[in-house]
TrEMBL record:
Species of provenance: Solibacter usitatus (strain Ellin6076)
Compositionally biased tracts (Basic and acidic residues): 153-170
GO MF annotation: an example: carboxylic ester hydrolase activity
Protein name in UniProt: Putative acetyl xylan esterase
UniProt cross-references to Pfam families, sorted A to Z: GCE_fung
Length: 418
């Protein structure tokens, strides 16, 4: 992870005077009680799919808009895009490669993003596609000299032309050849073209396009950067719906880490995503916030003040007062597919908390006659569990690996039926 933190910080996060250490010992985790996912605010139990869809789901979505990610603008009436290139013999003849620029506004200097799309060369019909938010410019996704180098934001928050040596820098995280061999396409967009990821990066991203006259800073309830990245994923989906080579009824969304948080929020709001994959999304993502293990709300809000709605800061050191928890956010995907994954070496993201988020969301799928995780016991390493909701934990560090993709491709096949 480009911006991952060192072990020291992970184990000793001096976020506030009251709380100096992140717990990574299961025996020290205090007891907590989760809010009920299947009860209305009034207390009335939710026992059927219709009441979930028409009553409880909108309640939870509204809570997350007001308290966590902030309210996103609606889908723009028109999508402006330009197909920059189409190469039919990419990746040694295995793929058709398209590069498409998506414009967020008519203003000439407004942000725009480049979408890289690989489709299986031999596809006889429109291909299902996995869309991903990526941490690097599109040239980092595969070792493909045909993709032009993109400008990227650097650690000191400057935009610079990328060096040739960064080409393919994320290739192991995307497993393009495996995806193509499964008969699917891969689309990626670089998240910092939607909003650069540093406090103060907002002014270079899309949020100011939606400010009220005279507004210069977000107000409580306004969307944060995570929601902006999620919104960008939906704009990529707008394009995929227009591409005749894409089976737009079969598009899944993947995000890793902070982009896993964004994928959860994108999937919650945009029902066109037939599944989402949260890879090690951790706190503010799939992990149960009430579990005092690994990263906590104060650390998140302090180190990344631009990620969430300002109201989320109310819950610093007050997780037990949240009228929500991650199982409720994950349940917003029902009855579509949900995959949550963890890594043993990524205790900061709280693997067990991620599992419990998915497990406690699962009863909502049962209302639709689908099977969720099917167990409340955390599985062993490399033992994926569940059906429409799946979970695995693998050995190794915070990353997206070949093993992860092997599981995601099996899940995609089960979800898509092809
Ligand atoms: C930090 C942060 C996490 C986040 C991760 C990432 O570790 O504390 O919440 O998921 O960065 O995006 O890499």
């Amino acid at each position: 992870m480009r911006k991952s933190i060192g072990l020291l910080l992970t184990l000793c996060w001096c976020a506030s005077a009251q709380k100096t250490e992140a717990i990574t010992d299961e025996a020290k985790v205090p007891a907590y009680t989760l809010p009920a996912v299947l009860a209305l605010k009034s207390g009335q139990p939710v026992t059927d799919a219709k009441s979930w869809t028409t009553k409880r789901r909108p309640e939870i979505l509204a809570i997350y808009e007001a308290e966590v990610y902030g309210k996103s603008p609606a889908r723009p009436p028109k999508l402006n895009y330009e197909v920059k290139s189409v190469e039919k013999q990419a990746l040694g003849g295995k793929a058709t490669r398209k590069i498409v620029t998506i414009f967020f506004s008519d203003k000439p200097d407004a942000p725009k993003m480049d979408l890289l799309l690989y489709l299986p060369a031999a596809a006889a019909k429109p291909a299902p596609v996995i869309l991903g938010l990526s941490f690097g410019g599109i040239h980092t996704v595969a070792n493909d000299p045909g993709v032009p180098l993109a400008e990227q934001w650097t650690r000191d928050n400057r935009k610079q032309p990328s060096a040739e040596k960064s080409r393919g820098g994320e290739a192991s995280r995307w497993q393009v050849e495996k995806i193509l061999a499964a008969g699917y396409g891969l689309a990626t967009v670089y998240y910092e073209q939607i909003e650069p990821d540093f406090a103060g990066g907002m002014k270079y991203g899309i949020r100011p396009l939606f400010f009220k006259p005279g507004q210069t800073e977000p107000e409580p309830g306004d969307w944060g950067a995570v929601a902006a990245w999620a919104w960008g994923a939906s704009r990529a989906m707008d394009y995929l719906e227009k591409d005749k080579d894409v089976d737009a009824r079969r598009v899944g969304l993947i995000g890793h880490s902070r982009l896993g948080k964004a994928a959860i929020w994108a999937g919650a709001q945009d029902a066109r995503f037939t599944f989402i994959i949260s890879n090690e999304s951790g706190e503010g993502g799939a992990a149960i916030s009430r579990r005092d293990y690994g990263e906590r709300t104060t650390a998140l809000n302090t180190r990344f003040p631009h990620w969430f709605d300002g109201n989320y800061k109310k819950y610093n050191d007050r997780e037990n007062e949240m009228p929500f928890d991650s199982h409720m956010a994950l349940a917003l995907m029902a009855p579509r597919g949900l995959y949550v994954a963890s890594a043993e070496g990524d205790q900061w993201s709280d693997p067990k908390g991620e599992f419990l988020g998915a497990a406690n969301a699962s009863p909502v799928w049962e209302l639709f006659g689908k099977k969720g995780i099917g167990t409340m016991t955390m599985p062993d390493l490399h033992e994926p569990v569940g059906d429409s909701v799946r979970y695995h934990i693998r050995a190794g560090k915070h990353d997206v690996t070949e093993y992860d993709w092997e599981q995601y491709l099996k899940f995609a096949k089960a979800q898509w039926g092809r």
